[in-house]
């Protein structure tokens, strides 16, 4: 079980090591580079490759971020979930030491880490001590924070994932929600958050009475805004002739798609789009099938949650007894909203 | 070009390194700091700035934390290549470890731990001791990890200095992050040690569970991972533990969730109440589902783990199959894993929906994914009898699309379906035959040919179909040839008409005379003989009923599955392999490499002209080092020094095992061992054994051979008191020995347990018993060689001082008349392999005099002088050690080593 990363690498798109940090001295940069360039050569696109690869006694785990790869190497049976998650949290090279010691993740709270930064751009003026929060019981908050106005902004964000088959049948639907809080609160306050019972009961694994709501039971009476519908078209489509009853639609040849945008889409309404394309190419009957992209939809519904979750109360208790203002906002967004085509 | 000319050249012409050197030595702080930054920048992009070592280290004594950090970073990087210079930094390190600023104290200890140079390690002990008890938790948490670093470099030192106990005390620290790091360090040390170090008692358990609620997300992972090894005493304790861990399932960090799942699953094995188990299964489903909203790489790890979890507890996700339906944008590695889990969760209840999905996937573009989807349909058909017909109809629909690789894959799985449900679905054969000419992959071809042979009596034109393949017989891959051979024989046995008769002759001829493949030839000859002697017998053999195949989607062996579940979230669970299959340990402590030795040769002047040329060229010491490393190895032929004082000894050769991959010493192989208990004495049991040293640990390498008539089991071992208190460090693990079999084991040994009084001798008395025989006694000899520790290398000056400090009465000399030294190098190699480290050599007339050092446990040095004439028998061996009583044992061992 025990085990940690031997080294951390930042590689460029061709697999060359840009910078690296050695924690245990048992995997060299040359070795890692040789492995990774080989991987890229062989697979062409490492994105299609498993993110955990074993080569010559060493396990490499990597993620891609823009044009660089972040990669760890280990010779032990280390915690893969923890290291991969760590890579995703990683941002700043100078912080590697604070964030990982001898290959063990330490801290990733951006706020606290920023206190460690000692470069010209951000110089601490107070005497240099380890940020208190580093070894506090609360890892995410330093002591002695003060604000003039004490406020809390709570966003209840839900994203709707849906998958509709080519015959119109909904085969999968779920909602992933997050409560995002931005706080401007002095001192070390305690926040108590109360939600409506139904959701809480489900979170505790108990079933609610009656059947759980499925997405297709819900009628959207709220207005969706910024709706964007991406309709895939064949790669060789030309001469678009498009008519819509609402919003605007444009052919986006770079995505092989027709993009239909509607600013505001009230519940219960129906809109039409009619588009005609010319397909000039002739293809062989036995040609490999074309990519079958689904129709994808993006939208937002403000002031609404699909799950029905509601904030009953948000109490802020601090020993100084100040009054804080809680602000709550609800929003529903499209997550992976896909409709397959025949 | 140097000296007074330099003012004519702008600094840029001077080259980067000398320029940086100037700046580093500047009296202005700003300039100095910028220079260090430039050096670090050059280092991180891979330029070699090691020649600036001294200059950079000189900047280390600064109040500026930023500068200090950078210098430390530099040190970690280059200390390996400049171990002698790294020692210059030690004083500052020790001072920094007492700095009033806790950041600096922690930084100093952390950095020292990263410098893997033996000499520095010694100086690390005192600062580390202090920092482990520091007032500031930040320093303590850094020191805790540092103990694991030190253990990696020098385990013995850690144990001798009592760091393990201090580390264990930190488990009760009032700061949760310190607790978490102490746990991580202990868990790692335990992993690398054969004896129990970190055992979790019910007290530690309760402390750690309390710390769990308070520490950072990563700390929670360390603690959960360590605790999952804990075996609860009974169901009640298990339930209590689970209750305290369950809230972790709600954590936003996926690693915390997976580690909590691991721990709950471990404890569930003990819980007997079905209600509790059912409830827990219900609670684990939502967090596992949520993992699939994480980043794709993490989803991948989660999916590999879910694959294991559903094999043990299928109910957890029985109703969640939709979560595993592939999204359009999922990376291919996520899709592949989802597919695997869909097959495992497919049931009569959800199969229709699952088939629709598979069909959808089978029309996508990624060939590997499409093939896997087609295979998945086949596997569902085999797994779910009632759904088999629906699966087949989906496969037929896919065949009709006529995408070549889909057709081929479908034919392969249909063959399996025919084997699972014989004589049920032959009606579709006609459809399959339509695609015959498009088959170009061996496996698909072989499958189709098997189908034709198996159902030859129901296919009217079976002979024509097979014949079409025969033309290309010699060019076909082996797999297809074997199937063609068998299918033709089947056809002939079922329809013994003229056509098949001719065909079989062609095939048998091709498969015997015309082929180089022994498998094919053997099979052909067997058929040939069967057919020619007894065609009825041939029918019984070739057309015999086949055993029914089963679904392979739950393929993991239960004991392996247990082990993998205990390793959830780790690489082991991703690979589906036990950790020992891929964990490799490399010793990384830096010792002198050969390159540096040649540099030494250059400086001390005991070398050929190459070395002298460098020396006289007037460049600085550092650059001569760099230059000398590029020279080919000069053969050292040092002239005899005037006096026998070894301070002029030149030529050092590092014969060290700087990098040694070490295997887990559970089973042993190797050269045969000396027989200590012959079978004639041991009622058929023969025991051979020898003490051996591997990776700093003494083992008793034993081999047991059972020549008796009965199986032997329950082996146990005991050692009598002996001069070094050697005894078994763990139980003897010999499996049951069947008659005629043998087993070889490595028994870890520990020292100083039960020391016999009196002068040391090499006698080792051993008793072995088993459940079937009386106790056997035998004696072995302790070779001093296995006691020599890996840290026995001495500095030249240290060697000299020690030699001088010991009274002459401690010097013992012995002639070893029968030993011949034929090559100094080979002899040194052999000595180094037994941890006798070469210090220096000199020539005295025609004699070679070698100086070596070794250390026996408890840090007792042994200084060795060997005098020999190359190629002529007779070696004079002199040793000096505080413990002169050891001398006879030493000579005995060295004589054996040099002779052998």
Automatic annotation (TrEMBL), chain A:
Matches recorded under Pfam families: Adap_comp_sub
Compartment(s) where it occurs, according to its Swiss-Prot or TrEMBL record: Endomembrane system
Span of domain MHD: 149-340
A Gene Ontology biological process term: vesicle-mediated transport
InterPro entries reported in the protein's UniProt record: Adaptor_comp_med_subunit (IPR050431), AP2_Mu_C_sf (IPR036168), Clathrin_mu (IPR001392), Clathrin_mu_CS (IPR018240), Longin-like_dom_sf (IPR011012), MHD (IPR028565)
Gene Ontology cellular component annotations, sorted alphabetically: clathrin adaptor complex; endomembrane system
Main location: membrane
Homology family: Belongs to the adaptor complexes medium subunit family.
Protein name: MHD domain-containing protein
UniProtKB/TrEMBL annotation, chain B:
Keywords, comma-separated and alphabetical: Cytoplasmic vesicle, Golgi apparatus, Membrane, Protein transport, Transport
Example of a GO MF term: clathrin binding
Cellular compartments annotated: Cytoplasmic vesicle, Clathrin-coated vesicle membrane; Golgi apparatus, trans-Golgi network
Domain Beta-adaptin appendage C-terminal subdomain: 788-899
Biased composition (Low complexity): 616-632
UniProt name for this protein: Beta-adaptin-like protein
Membrane spanning stretches: none
Function: Subunit of clathrin-associated adaptor protein complex that plays a role in protein sorting in the late-Golgi/trans-Golgi network (TGN) and/or endosomes. The AP complexes mediate both the recruitment of clathrin to membranes and the recognition of sorting signals within the cytosolic tails of transmembrane cargo molecules.
Residue numbers spanned by region Disordered: 588-643
Organism of derivation: Stephania cephalantha
Membrane topology per record: Peripheral membrane protein
Domain Clathrin adaptor alpha/beta/gamma-adaptin appendage Ig-like subdomain: 669-779
Annotated Gene Ontology cellular component terms: clathrin adaptor complex; clathrin-coated vesicle membrane; Golgi apparatus
Similarity-based family: Belongs to the adaptor complexes large subunit family.
Oligomer and partners: Adaptor protein complexes are heterotetramers composed of two large adaptins (beta-type subunit and alpha-type or delta-type or epsilon-type or gamma-type subunit), a medium adaptin (mu-type subunit) and a small adaptin (sigma-type subunit).
Annotated InterPro entries: AP_beta, AP_complex_bsu_1_2_4, ARM-like, ARM-type_fold, B-adaptin_app_sub_C, Clathrin/coatomer_adapt-like_N, Clathrin_a/b/g-adaptin_app_Ig, Clathrin_app_Ig-like_sf
GO biological process entries: intracellular protein transport; vesicle-mediated transport
């Amino acid at each position: 079980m025990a085990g940690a990363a031997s080294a951390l690498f930042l590689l460029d798109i061709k697999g060359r090591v840009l910078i690296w940090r050695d924690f245990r001295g048992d995997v060299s940069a040359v070795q890692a580079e040789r492995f990774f360039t080989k991987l890229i050569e062989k697979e062409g696109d490492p994105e299609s490759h498993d993110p955990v690869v074993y080569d010559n006694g060493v396990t490499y785990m990597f993620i891609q971020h823009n044009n660089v790869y972040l990669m760890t190497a280990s010779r032990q049976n280390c915690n893969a979930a923890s290291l991969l998650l760590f890579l995703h949290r990683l941002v700043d090279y100078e912080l590697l030491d604070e964030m990982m010691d001898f290959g063990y993740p330490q801290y990733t709270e951006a706020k606290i880490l920023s206190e460690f930064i000692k470069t010209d751009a951000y110089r601490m003026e107070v005497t240099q001590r380890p940020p208190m929060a580093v070894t506090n019981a609360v890892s995410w908050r330093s002591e002695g924070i003060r604000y003039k106005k004490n406020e809390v902004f709570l966003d209840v964000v839900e994203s709707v994932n849906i998958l509709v088959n080519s015959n119109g049948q909904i085969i999968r639907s779920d909602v992933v929600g997050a409560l995002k809080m931005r706080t401007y609160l002095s001192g070390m306050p305690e926040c108590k958050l109360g939600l409506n019972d139904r959701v809480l009961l489900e979170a505790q694994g108990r079933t609610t009475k009656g059947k759980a709501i499925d997405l297709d039971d819900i009628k959207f009476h709220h207005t969706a805004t910024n709706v964007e519908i991406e309709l895939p078209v064949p790669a060789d489509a030309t001469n678009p002739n498009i008519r819509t009853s609402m919003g605007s639609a444009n052919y986006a040849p770079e995505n092989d798609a027709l993009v239909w945008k509607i600013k505001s889409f009230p519940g219960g309404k129906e809109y039409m789009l009619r588009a005609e394309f010319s397909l000039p190419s002739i293809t062989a009957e036995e040609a490999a099938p074309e990519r079958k992209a689904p129709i994808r939809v993006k939208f937002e519904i403000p002031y609404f949650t699909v799950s029905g979750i509601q904030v009953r109360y948000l109490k802020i208790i601090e020993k100084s007894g100040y009054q804080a203002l809680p602000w709550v906002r609800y929003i529903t967004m499209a997550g992976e909203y896909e409709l397959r085509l025949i | 070009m140097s000296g007074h000319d330099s003012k004519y050249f702008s600094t840029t012409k001077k080259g980067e390194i000398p320029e940086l050197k100037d700046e580093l030595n500047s009296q202005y702080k700003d300039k100095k700091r910028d220079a260090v930054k430039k050096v670090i920048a050059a280092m991180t992009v891979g330029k070699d700035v090691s020649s600036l070592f001294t200059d950079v280290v000189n900047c280390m004594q600064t109040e500026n934390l930023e500068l200090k950090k950078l210098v430390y970073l530099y040190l970690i990087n280059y200390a390996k290549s400049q171990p002698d210079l790294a020692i210059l930094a030690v004083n500052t390190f020790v001072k920094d470890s007492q700095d009033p600023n806790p950041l600096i104290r922690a930084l100093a200890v952390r950095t020292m731990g990263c410098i893997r140079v033996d000499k520095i390690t010694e100086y690390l002990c005192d600062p580390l001791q202090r920092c482990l008890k520091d007032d500031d938790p930040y320093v303590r948490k850094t020191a805790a990890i540092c103990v694991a670093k030190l253990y990696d470099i020098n385990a013995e030192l850690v144990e001798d200095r009592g760091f393990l106990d201090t580390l264990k005390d930190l488990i009760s620290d009032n700061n949760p992050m310190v607790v978490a790091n102490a746990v991580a360090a202990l868990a790692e040390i335990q992993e690398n040690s054969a004896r129990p170090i970190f055992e979790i008692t019910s007290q530690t358990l309760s402390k750690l569970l309390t710390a769990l609620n308070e520490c950072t997300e990563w700390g929670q992972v360390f603690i959960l991972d360590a605790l999952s090894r804990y075996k609860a005493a009974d169901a009640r304790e298990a339930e209590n533990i689970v209750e305290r861990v369950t809230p972790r399932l709600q954590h936003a960090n996926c690693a915390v969730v997976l580690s909590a799942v691991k721990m709950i699953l471990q404890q569930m094995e003990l819980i007997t109440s079905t209600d509790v188990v059912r409830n827990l299964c219900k609670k684990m489903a939502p967090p596992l589902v949520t993992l699939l909203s994480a980043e794709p790489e993490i989803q991948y790890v989660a999916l590999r783990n879910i694959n294991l979890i559903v094999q043990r507890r299928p109910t957890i996700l029985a109703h969640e199959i939709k979560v595993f339906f592939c999204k359009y944008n999922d990376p291919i590695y996520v899709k592949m894993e989802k597919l695997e889990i869909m097959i495992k969760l497919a049931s009569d209840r959800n199969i229709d929906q699952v088939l629709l999905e598979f069909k959808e996937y089978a029309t996508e573009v990624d060939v590997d994914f499409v093939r896997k989807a087609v295979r998945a349909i086949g596997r569902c058909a085999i797994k779910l009898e009632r759904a088999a017909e629906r699966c087949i109809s989906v496969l037929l629909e896919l065949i009709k699309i006529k995408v070549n690789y889909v057709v081929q894959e479908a034919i392969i799985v249909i063959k399996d379906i025919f084997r699972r449900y014989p004589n049920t679905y032959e009606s579709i054969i006609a459809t399959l035959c339509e695609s015959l000419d498009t088959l170009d992959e061996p496996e698909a071809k072989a499958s189709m040919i098997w189908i034709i042979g198996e159902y030859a009596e129901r296919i009217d034109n079976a002979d024509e179909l097979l014949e079409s393949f025969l033309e290309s017989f010699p060019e076909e891959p082996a797999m297809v040839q074997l199937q063609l051979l068998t299918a033709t024989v089947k056809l002939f046995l079922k329809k013994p008409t003229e056509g098949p008769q001719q065909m079989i002759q062609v095939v048998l001829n091709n498969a015997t005379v015309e082929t180089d493949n022994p498998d094919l030839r053997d099979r052909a000859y067997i058929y040939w003989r069967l057919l020619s002697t007894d065609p009825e017998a041939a029918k019984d053999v070739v057309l015999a009923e086949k055993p029914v195949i089963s679904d392979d989607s739950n393929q993991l062996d239960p004991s392996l599955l247990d082990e993998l579940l205990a390793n959830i979230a780790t690489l082991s669970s991703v690979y589906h392999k036990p950790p020992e299959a891929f964990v490799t340990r490399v010793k990384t402590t830096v010792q002198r490499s050969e390159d540096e030795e040649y540099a030494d040769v250059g400086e001390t002047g005991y070398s050929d002209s190459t070395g002298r040329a460098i020396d006289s060229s007037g460049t600085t010491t550092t650059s001569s080092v760099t230059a000398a490393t590029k020279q080919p190895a000069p053969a050292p032929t040092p002239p005899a020094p005037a006096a026998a004082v070894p301070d002029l000894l030149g030529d050092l050769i590092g014969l060290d095992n700087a990098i040694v991959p070490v295997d887990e010493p559970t089973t042993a192989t190797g050269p045969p061992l000396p027989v200590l208990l012959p079978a004639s004495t041991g009622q058929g049991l023969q025991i051979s054994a020898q003490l051996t040293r591997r990776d700093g640990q003494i083992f008793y390498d034993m081999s047991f051979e059972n020549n008796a008539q009965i199986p032997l089991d329950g082996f146990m071992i005991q050692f009598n008191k002996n001069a070094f208190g050697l005894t078994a460090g763990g139980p003897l693990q010999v499996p049951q020995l069947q008659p005629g079999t043998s087993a070889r084991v490595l028994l870890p040994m520990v020292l100083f347990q039960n020391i016999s009084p009196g002068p040391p001798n090499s006698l080792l008395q051993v008793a072995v018993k088993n459940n079937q025989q009386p106790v056997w006694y035998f004696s072995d000899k302790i070779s001093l060689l296995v006691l020599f520790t890996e840290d026995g290398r001495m500095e030249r000056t240290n060697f000299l001082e020690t030699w001088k400090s010991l009274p002459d009465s401690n010097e013992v000399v012995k002639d070893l008349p029968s030993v011949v030294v034929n090559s100094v190098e080979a002899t040194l190699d052999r000595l180094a392999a037994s941890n006798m480290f070469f210090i220096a050599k000199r020539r005295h007339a025609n004699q070679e005099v070698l100086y070596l050092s070794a250390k026996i446990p408890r840090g007792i040095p042994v200084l060795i002088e060997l005098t020999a004439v190359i190629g002529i028998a007779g070696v004079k061996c002199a040793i000096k050690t505080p413990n002169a009583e050891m001398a006879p044992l030493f000579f005995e061992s060295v004589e054996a080593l040099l002779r052998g």
